[in-house]
C-alpha cells in the first residue's frame, strides 16, 4: 500500500530528479550542470545557455549556431506585432507575456545541430521574448517598436530595443551577469508549474506560459518589482527600522527577504549586492541602495530577537541594478522571465525524457 504523505506547500518534499541545477540551501550554493554560478557569471550569456540546455560545454561552432539562431528569430512578425498592438497599453508586461507566448509563430527551417524539435520551439519563444518586452515598452512610451538588430549581441540588442539607444559595454555586461544568475533554479514554483503542465503532454508553449504565469506572483519572481517599490516608498534609510517593525507587527512580508531553500545567504544576492552598490553611487540610486541595506539590517536584527535568521534573496538588490539600467519597476519580472525561460525549456526537455502525469490527491474535509 502507498504511504500517504500530507503537505500543503511541499516544503522539503522531493518530487523528482534533475541534472540541470543544484540548489544547496544549507551551504548557500547554486550550480548549473555542476558548475558553480560564481564561475559562470563572467562567461558570454549564450555560452551558459548552451551548457544549461544540453549539459555540455559548447564548442565555437555550437555557440555561433545558437547566437545566429536566436538573433535570426528575434524579430516579431506582422501578426505578432498586431496582437501586441491590440492589448491594452496598461496591461502588465507579465500578463502580456502570458497572452503572447502561446500565439508566437513557431515554424522555422533553420536547425541547430543535435537539438530536438522541442528545443527549437523553446528557443524560438526565448528568442522573441526580448523583442516583445522591448516593443511593449516603446509602445507604452508612445513610440513605434525598434526592430531587432541581428548584428548585436543578445543583451546589447535587448537594451537598444528597450531603451531606444545603444547601451554602454558595461551596461551590457551588468545585464549578462544579472541574467546568468536568474537562468535557472531547480524546482522553484514556476519551473514546477511548467513540469506539471508538461506532465499532461501539453505543448512546450503551454508549459512555458504556465511557468511565466507562476513566476509573476510577489512571493516568487514578482518580488523584484515589489522590493524596489517598497524601498522607494520607505523614502530613505532613516525610515527603514520603523517600516520593518510595523511590517512584522502586522505580519506583512518584507519583499526580497527570505527563501524556502536557502538557510544562509542566497548566493545570487552575494553577487548582486556589490554590483548594485557599485552602480548606485550617487543621487536617488544611492538613496535606494542605502534604504535596501538599512531594511536588510533592520530585518536581521528584528528576526534575531526571536532567534531566527532571514537573508536577502535574489530579488532584493536586483531591482537596484535594473533601476540603474533604466528599466521601470513594472518591467522587472518580465526581464526575469526573459532569462528564466531558458531554464524552463531545459526542464521541459528533461521532464519529457521520462514523463509521468503529476497528479496529487486531496484530503476530503467536506460533509
Ligand atoms: N518578511 C517577513 N517575514 C518573513 C519573511 C519576509 N520576507 N520571510 C519569511 N518570514 C517569516 C514568516 O513570517 C514565518 O514566520 P513564522 O514562523 O513566525 O510564521 C517564517 O519566516 C517562515 O516563513 P514562510 O513564509 O512560512 O516560509 P516559506 O519557506 O514559505 O517562505 C518565502 C519563503 C515565500 C520566499 C518568504 O520568505 C517570503 O514571503 N519572502 C518575501 C517574498 C519574496 O521575496 N519572494 C521571492 C523569493 S526568491 C524567488 O522566488 C525568485
Rg is: 21 Å
Number of helices: 16
Helical content class: 55-70%
Bound molecules: acetyl coenzyme *A
* Number of extended strands: 3
CATH topology of the largest domain: Citrate Synthase, domain 1
Task: Identify the CATH class of the largest domain.
Answer: Mainly Alpha
Tell me what the CATH architecture of the largest domain is: Orthogonal Bundle
Domain module count: 2
Structure description:
By secondary structure, the chain is mainly alpha-helical. The chain contains 16 helices and 3 strands. Strands 1-2-3 form a 3-stranded antiparallel β-sheet. It starts with 20 loop residues before the first strand and ends in a 14-residue tail after the last helix. The mean pLDDT is 97. The structure holds acetyl coenzyme *A (ACO).
Sum up the structure in keywords.
367 residues; mainly alpha; Citrate Synthase, domain 1; Cytochrome p450-Terp, domain 2; 2 domains; three-stranded antiparallel sheet; 3% strand; binds acetyl coenzyme *A
Task: Please provide a brief summary of the model.
This protein is mainly alpha-helical and 367 residues long. Helices cover 56% and strands 3% of the residues. A hairpin with a 4-residue loop joins β1 and β2.
Topology, element by element:
Blueprint: E1 21-24, E2 29-32, E3 35-36, H1 37-40, H2 45-54, H3 60-72, H4 78-86, H5 93-100, H6 117-140, H7 154-163, H8 169-181, H9 189-199, H10 204-215, H11 223-234, H12 240-249, H13 267-279, H14 283-305, H15 314-324, H16 332-353
Antiparallel strand pairs: 1-2, 2-3
The structure holds acetyl coenzyme *A (ACO).
Residues 188, 219-221, 223, 253-260, 310, 313-315 line the site of acetyl coenzyme *A.
Amino acid at each position: 500500500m502507498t504511504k500517504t504523505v500530507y503537505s500543503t506547500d511541499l516544503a522539503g518534499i522531493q518530487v523528482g530528479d534533475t541534472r540541470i541545477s543544484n540548489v544547496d540551501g544549507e551551504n548557500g550554493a547554486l550550480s548549473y550542470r555542476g558548475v558553480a554560478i560564481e564561475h559562470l557569471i563572467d562567461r558570454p550569456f549564450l555560452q551558459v545557455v548552451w551548457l544549461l540546455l544540453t549539459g555540455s560545454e559548447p564548442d565555437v561552432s555550437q555557440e555561433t549556431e545558437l547566437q545566429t539562431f536566436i538573433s535570426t528569430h528575434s524579430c516579431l512578425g506582422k501578426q505578432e506585432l498586431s496582437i501586441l498592438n491590440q492589448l491594452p497599453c496598461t496591461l502588465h508586461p507579465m500578463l502580456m507575456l502570458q497572452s503572447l507566448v502561446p500565439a508566437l509563430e513557431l515554424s522555422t527551417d533553420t536547425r541547430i545541430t543535435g537539438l530536438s524539435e522541442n528545443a527549437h520551439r523553446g528557443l524560438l519563444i526565448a528568442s522573441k521574448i526580448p523583442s516583445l518586452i522591448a516593443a511593449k515598452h516603446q509602445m507604452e512610451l508612445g513610440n513605434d517598436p525598434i526592430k531587432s538588430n541581428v548584428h548585436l549581441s543578445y543583451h546589447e540588442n535587448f537594451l537598444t530595443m528597450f531603451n531606444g539607444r545603444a547601451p554602454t559595454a558595461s551596461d551590457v555586461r551588468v545585464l549578462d551577469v544579472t541574467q546568468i544568475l536568474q537562468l535557472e533554479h531547480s524546482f522553484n514554483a514556476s519551473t514546477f508549474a511548467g513540469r506539471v503542465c508538461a506532465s499532461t503532454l501539453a505543448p512546450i508553449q503551454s508549459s512555458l506560459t504556465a511557468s511565466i504565469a507562476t513566476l509573476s506572483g510577489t512571493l516568487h519572481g514578482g518580488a523584484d518589482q515589489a522590493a524596489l517599490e517598497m524601498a522607494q516608498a520607505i523614502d530613505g534609510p532613516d525610515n527603514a527600522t520603523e517600516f520593518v517593525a510595523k511590517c512584522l507587527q502586522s505580519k506583512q512580508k518584507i519583499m526580497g527577504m527570505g527563501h524556502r531553500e536557502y538557510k544562509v545567504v542566497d548566493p545570487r544576492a552575494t553577487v548582486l549586492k556589490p554590483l548594485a552598490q557599485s552602480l548606485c553611487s550617487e543621487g536617488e540610486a544611492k538613496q535606494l541602495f542605502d534604504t535596501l541595506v538599512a531594511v536588510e539590517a533592520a530585518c536581521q536584527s528584528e528576526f534575531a530577537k526571536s532567534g531566527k535568521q532571514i537573508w536577502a534573496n535574489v530579488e532584493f538588490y536586483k531591482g537596484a541594478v535594473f533601476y540603474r539600467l533604466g528599466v521601470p519597476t513594472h518591467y522587472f519580472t518580465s526581464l526575469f522571465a526573459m532569462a528564466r525561460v531558458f531554464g524552463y525549456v531545459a526542464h521541459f526537455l528533461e521532464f519529457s525524457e521520462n514523463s509521468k502525469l503529476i497528479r496529487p490527491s486531496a484530503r476530503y474535509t467536506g460533509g
